[in-house]
Amino acid sequence: MKAFTVVYNADRYMVKPLNGHSPRFLVKVHGQDVIFEHDLDGHIRAESNKVASMSLLLGLADKIEESAGK
Fold first, then answer.
1. pTM attached to this predicted model
2. With 70 as the cut, is the pLDDT of residue 70 above it?
3. Per the CB 3.0–4.6 Å rule, which of 24, 34, 45, 46 could disulfide with 18?
4. Alpha carbon separation from 29 to 4, 9, 34, 40, 42 (Å, rounded)
């Protein structure tokens, strides 16, 4: 899988798959790296951190899930 861009609230975020084909994704949010991966229910969610609001991270996770084709 190649890197791709998602747009959320008029901001663009570059999403890079980790290790090429891994179900984990790296996204720079406010200049800091945030890892997104599948949770126990199979949805993509961000690791817990204080980089951004939870609503931003959930919105990005939903956009990544849509773009990655789940």
1. 0.85
2. no
3. 24
4. 15, 13, 7, 23, 22
